Structure formats: C-alpha cells, structure tokens
Amino acid sequence: MKKVAVLVLLVLLTFTSIFAVSNKIVVWCSEKQVDFMKTFGEKFTRDTGILVEVQQVNFGDIKAKFLTAAQAGEGPDIIVGAHDWVGELVENGLIDSIPFSAIETSKFAKSGLDAFTVNGKLYGVPYAIEAVALLYNKDYVEEAPKTIEELKKVAAEYTTDETLGFVYDAGNFYFSYGFIAGNGGYVFKWTKENGYDVNNIGLANEGAIKGAELIKSFFDEGLIPQGANYGTMDSMFKDGLAAMIINGPWAVKDYINAGIDFGVLPLTELDLGNGHHGKPFVGVQGLMVNARSENKALAKEFIINYLATKDGIYQFYLADPRLPARTDVAQIIEEKGGPVPKEIVDAFVKSAAGGEPMPNVPEMGSVWGPMGDALSQIINGQLEPAQALKEAVEKIKSSISK
C-alpha cells in the first residue's frame, strides 16, 4: 500500500507541474553501476514514458562537478555518492530531502539511514555500507595475525626483493584512520545529545599520535616501501606478490577473479595493544536528488520504487559488491549467491559494525587535505608525528573558522 500511495502522490505532483518538467531524468554514477542502472532506467521508461539517461562520471569527480553544476541550476537529477558529502551539499541547498515515510525504513540498516540524516531529515537513500579490513593471501599466511606485533613479524618474513609482506595506502587518511581511531584519536567529538562538536578535534591527542607512530613504524622497519600507494597495493595483491593488505569490499571481486585464495580479518579484531583494536571509517553510499532539478518528483519515484527496492539493491551488490544497506537483501544473496563468498561478506560486516562513521558534517571537507599532508610528512620523515598532527589540526581549525 505504501508503494502505491507514494506512486500516486508523485504522479499528482508530476501532473501539477507537467509543463515545467522535461521528459528525461539524468543520473550520474560510476563505471560499475552504469549497465544495471540503464536496465532499471529502461524499465522505468516502459512504465512511465520518462527517459532515463545514465552518465558515467568517475566517482572521485562526482561531488566537485555536481557542486559546480547544481549551483548553476544545472547538472543531473540524481547522483550516486558518499554520505560524507551530505553536510556540504545540504548546507549549500543542493540536495532535496526524501520523506522517511516514502521508504521501508524497517528494511534498511539504521546506520545507513543515520548517515544520510541531517537535522532530522533524510537526504539520501543508502544502498551500501563499507569499511576496510585486513586481507591476507593464504598462499603466504594460513591464519590471519591477531596482533599488530604478529602482523609485523609475518610481514617481515615475506618482505623480499620481489614480494611485500604488508602494504596499504598509508598516506591516505581514509585507510590509515583505523590505526589512529583504534588508539584513541577521533575527528570530531560526537555525543548522542549534541552530535558532532567540530571545535573538539582529536587528531593530535595522545591516541592519534600513537596511531601515527605505528604507521611510521611500518616504513621505518622496512615493511612498506616509500611511494607505495593504492595502485601498488592493489596490483601486487592481484598478482600474488603481496601477503597482506588493507582494502575494502569493493576490491574483492577483482581478487577473486584473479584467482587469489584470500581470507579477511575484520580490522576491529586486530589487537593494537593495551586493549585497543583497529577502528576503521565506516562509509555509506547512497542516492541523492538535485534540489534544483525540475524533475524532483520523478527522480524520487525512480529511486524509491526502482533503485532502492530489494531487487534494486541486490543489483547494486552484484555490480559493486559492498555490503547491502537493505537487510532483506541478505536473503537474496543466500538464495541466489553473489560474486563474494558469505564468509568474506560476514568479515567485512564485522569490520563495519565496530568501525566509526565518517562525520557527515560540512566541516569534514576541511580534514582530508591537512591529514593527507600530515601523513605524508610523517611517512617521509619530514616531521615527527606529534608536530605533523598538531600542524594539521591547526590548519583544520583555521579552515573551519573561515
């Protein structure tokens, strides 16, 4: 009944502005989602007569291009993006809210809905949840190391002129945050009552410094070579030349296709010492509507009753196997299977369950650059961890205050 009611409401809204809207919806999404998105668009066209044009945009470019286009009253009607964009997009009035009553909220993971909620309103429908974990090649490592010291010992054993025992994109704050937060660092202090306090930054506290010192030790001890990045990690693991890496669920399909026999240890189960465990960022991907679109009603109809359905999110999973944001999709995966074995999915679920959501406030945009610079300075030995983090926090505070 809810679906019918929403459809009727949206049809009425559409007819009231029939001369204002075009007969086309434009969607921006990344390469992995284009094919199935077009298939759903064709079904929407058959049902409504409204065309759906799916345009491929590199995921890393979608936000910046959308900010420019939407502010000029242009751009797509729908974007596929990350929850940590929401605060900035809402602040600029660029994405429209979606009524909670329009979707089956009981079928979605609460963390996914919370990630797209700002000031009590829902600004996107989540389709996937993700967090990184430790992946290990079973040709080298039969059982995953459970402590950071054991990880270093195993990594040293397989670090040779031709192979790496352990490698990850350490200069990327997203991938390194698990060691910083796991030791007690944090981006913005969060409380249930008040949300994020953007003036309380914990990226240079004692725990953050300890985490940064751990990251530095991977390089000082010769485990990770200078200059290693995501491409290094990904290609070496795919080629069977890296024993252990840190990566997310988006990559596992390629590793399976490459014939790598690997296991996954939730980062939250890696003991960092003194009772601390890894605490990775938790990210949520979702569908958002351009607030300045003339086709908002149609865009929401396409999202709610096509893309965000049980089958729709299953198709997202098949195309790009992150953790489905709809809880009932697990039943389809169990019945029909998917590109990723259940034990691997379960391990990533555990890593996400004990992780920390990326703040969805606009001020998060001020964090990435300074922290990336700080990690680079730490890794390259240009500054000691405490000084690099102190300077990064000062830059973040200065940027926020402007």
From TrEMBL:
It comes from the Bacteria. Residues 1-20 form the signal peptide. Transmembrane segments: none annotated. Keywords: Signal, Sugar transport, Transport. The keyword Methyltransferase does not apply. Pfam families: SBP_bac_8. The keyword Lyase does not apply. Belongs to the bacterial solute-binding protein 1 family. PANTHER family: MALTOSE-BINDING PERIPLASMIC PROTEIN, MALTOSE_MALTODEXTRIN-BINDING PERIPLASMIC PROTEIN. This is Maltose/maltodextrin ABC transporter substrate-binding protein MalE.
